[in-house]
């Protein structure tokens, strides 16, 4: 569940200014857009003046002058046409600016996600992150497309209208100014009430995405264990809360947008008409002035209505922006490396010195771990589930930061290597390999343009993957769908092996890499691994002890501590935990063999 975000007025202004900072690279385009907006606004202000002149000066019996009327009519039509053309270019400019900004914002978010440590992903649902990159940035786009232009245009228009009103009739203009504080009060009240509901809606939408993502990834388990009803119920509950938040916001919109503003408009109209009605008893009044005031009054409330309508989009954008910036400000980054160090791993000697580590800062999963893997040696990690095997690999691969002890490679702290220098010479093969969308060749090469097709094929041959790849449609150009779901587990593992070998690492890390490979394939892989380990330091997690009997050093872990260490024969002779695990596995194998026979 995501942490709920509360936004005060100060925090909303902070988010707004930060969003506006993305406009800095586009100052020239924004200047043009606002210039076009100003010209269209001037056109809106001039048009009622032309009609007022026509009514007061020319709409009289016996005073039909053709040339002035032709000039007024042609001027009116010209302004309308030019205004329409300028409005088109203005909207295109604002759309273009918005798309540029959102493009940059999405790049920033994606880059940030790439830089986050695995600790962040351990506690944050993938759907929530996807929602921030897609839905939230799309909501922000609306602010730059419509909200800002509407607010600026409305500001220009209101300023121009009130100036014109004071020119036409100072006393009546002062009466009309009375409505401004009332409008401001309604706007502030709406902003304060709607922000809470929009925040709730964005959070519920994020939860919907997270639940949908979880359901899609675990669809096979859901169907096998008949969990469809439970998932539908959970999804329905979240959807119901999203609906409730949406309905609360609709009620606020229905009360404070059109109805409230229209009521204030009627009140202002009554003031104007009453003023002219009372004045007409004493003085003659100009019909054109009445028309202009009523027209301007209507034009005052139309931009106010537009701003109120856009205020809902503004609130969505601010809430979405706060969620995006919360991700951009996330401090759980991947462990830092010394990027000024150009050297990379040369020999591959690994030393763990008194390493203790905790994921949550409370309970240690590793306790005082110390061992050495000399160049070319294989160190195997064995132990029951939760003993700390994967944590050792996670620290060595720099997926997590450690605070106590140190890890040395070639006598130098692992922190002192640059990220590229460290990862370039370390190869990792997981128990559940990940394949990217693309081709088999792309998955082995990982889009390394310097790696030739010959190197790719040699790597595949080395791990015994070439035979099955050649049988595929299009061979190495065979299409790989998402996560390689059309391949068997063993085939995915072989491709992952080929990917690792092609990179020619100095240190090889195997997380039960042969677990998903059948016995026949495993024998071929073991032969390939024996050749591959020559000249490379290998750290291997193994559940099947038969796969690591030739390791130079076997570490037996229990509850985060190394309880036994030695070669296979030494540990068997010791008669400890390793000996019991070996007997248990061999006994199970013998019983299975008896059943088969």
Automatic annotation (TrEMBL):
Main subcellular location of this protein, as a coarse class: membrane
InterPro entries for the chain: AAA+_ATPase, ABC1_TM_dom, ABC1_TM_sf, ABC_transporter-like_ATP-bd, ABC_transporter-like_CS, P-loop_NTPase, Type_1_exporter
Regions that span the bilayer: 29-50, 70-89, 144-166, 172-190, 255-277
Domain ABC transmembrane type-1, first and last residues per copy: 32-316
Keywords attached to this entry: ATP-binding, Membrane, Nucleotide-binding, Transmembrane, Transmembrane helix
UniProt entry tagged with the keyword Transmembrane: yes
Taxonomy, superkingdom: Bacteria
Protein name per the record: ABC transporter ATP-binding protein
Organism of provenance: Neobacillus kokaensis
């Amino acid at each position: 569940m995501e942490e709920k975000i509360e936004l005060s007025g100060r925090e909303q202004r902070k988010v707004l200014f930060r969003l506006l900072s993305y406009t800095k690279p586009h100052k020239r385009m924004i200047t043009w857009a606002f210039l076009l907006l100003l010209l269209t606004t001037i056109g809106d202000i001039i048009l009622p003046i032309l009609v007022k002149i026509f009514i007061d000066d020319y709409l009289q019996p016996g005073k039909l002058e053709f040339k002035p009327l032709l000039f007024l009519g042609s001027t009116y039509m010209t302004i309308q046409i030019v205004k329409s053309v300028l409005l088109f270019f203005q909207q295109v400019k604002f759309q273009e600016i918005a798309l540029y900004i959102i493009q940059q914002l999405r790049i920033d978010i994606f880059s940030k996600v790439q830089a986050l440590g695995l600790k962040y992903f351990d506690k944050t649902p993938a759907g929530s992150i996807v929602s921030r990159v897609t839905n939230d940035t799309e909501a922000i786009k609306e602010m730059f497309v419509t909200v800002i232009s509407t607010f600026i245009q409305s500001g220009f228009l209101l300023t121009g209208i009130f100036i014109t009103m004071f020119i036409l009739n100072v006393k009546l203009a002062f009466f009309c100014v009375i409505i401004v504080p009332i409008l401001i009060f309604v706007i502030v009240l709406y902003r304060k009430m709607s922000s809470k509901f929009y925040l709730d809606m964005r959070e519920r939408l994020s939860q919907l995405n997270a639940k949908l993502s979880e359901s899609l990834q675990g669809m096979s388990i859901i169907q096998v264990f008949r969990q469809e009803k439970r998932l539908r119920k959970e999804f329905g509950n979240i959807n119901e809360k999203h609906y409730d938040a949406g309905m609360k916001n609709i009620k606020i919109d229905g009360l404070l947008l059109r109805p409230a503003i229209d009521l204030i408009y009627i009140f202002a109209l009554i003031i104007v008409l009453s003023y002219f009605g009372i004045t007409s008893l004493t003085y003659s009044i100009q019909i054109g002035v009445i028309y202009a005031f009523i027209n301007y009054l209507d034009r005052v409330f139309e931009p106010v209505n537009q701003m109120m309508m856009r205020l809902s989009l503004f609130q969505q954008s601010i809430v979405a922006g706060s969620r995006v910036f919360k991700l951009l400000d996330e401090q759980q980054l991947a462990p830092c490396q010394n990027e000024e160090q150009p050297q990379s791993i040369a020999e591959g000697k690994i030393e763990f010195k008194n390493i203790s580590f905790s994921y949550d800062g409370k309970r240690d999963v590793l306790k005082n771990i110390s061992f050495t893997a000399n160049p070319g040696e294989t160190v195997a990690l064995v132990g029951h589930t939760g003993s700390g095997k994967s944590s050792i690999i996670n620290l060595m691969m720099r997926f997590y930061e450690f605070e106590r002890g140190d890890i040395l490679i070639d006598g130098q702290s692992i922190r002192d290597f640059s990220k590229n220098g460290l990862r370039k010479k370390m190869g990792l093969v997981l128990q559940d390999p990940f394949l990217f969308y693309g081709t088999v060749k792309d998955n082995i090469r990982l889009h390394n343009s310097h790696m030739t097709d010959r190197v790719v094929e040699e790597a595949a041959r080395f791990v015994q993957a070439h035979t099955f790849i050649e049988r595929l449609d299009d061979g190495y150009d065979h299409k790989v769908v998402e996560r390689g779901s059309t391949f068997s587990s063993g085939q995915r593992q072989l491709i992952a092996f080929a990917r690792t070998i092609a990179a020619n690492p100095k240190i090889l890390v195997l997380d039960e890499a042969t677990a998903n490979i059948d016995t026949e394939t495993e024998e071929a892989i073991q032969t390939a691994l024996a050749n591959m380990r020559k000249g490379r330091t290998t750290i291997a997690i193994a559940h099947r002890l038969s796969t690591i009997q030739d390791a130079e050093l076997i570490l037996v872990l229990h509850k985060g501590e190394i309880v036994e260490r030695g070669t296979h024969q030494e540990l068997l002779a010791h008669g400890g935990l390793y000996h019991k695990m070996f007997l248990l596995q061999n006994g199970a194998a013998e019983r299975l063999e008896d059943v088969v026979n």
